[in-house]
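Q: Could you fold this chain for me?
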Amino acid sequence: MKDVIEAGEYVRTENGKIDKVVSRNYYIGEYIEAEKSFIFCKNIVKHSKQLIDLIEIGDILELREYADYFKKSEKIGISDIDMLSDIKQAIRDKKIEVLSVLTKERYRANRYKVEGEKWKDINYGYENIIYLKKENEI
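A: Sure. Below is the predicted structure, expressed as structure tokens.
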């Protein structure tokens, strides 16, 4: 990363980690200090003062919407450029707030892909979350 990264900026790494920079001091000339860890500068693919600038197609967002005097939260996947643009605009207009981001890289690295076994969807009452269990475990 050749740009100067300032304290308070958000960074996104090539493996999908998002973190906030604590200090603009570089350690050993190659690492930058962030809230959760030290980040190797060569792994940083994007940085910005605004978290929304780091959101990409394929990421999953937990959003809070303010409507009619109540707060409603939901989790959605960003499927295309139009959806990404609409969400970024709604965030700028303060109609919604980002609560958390699961990057597509982190999702792919941590998912368990089901193949060859019968699975059944179980809804435990959480909004928009479906848990999968083997049929013989139900």
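A (continued): The CA atoms of residues 25 and 32 lie 7 Å apart.
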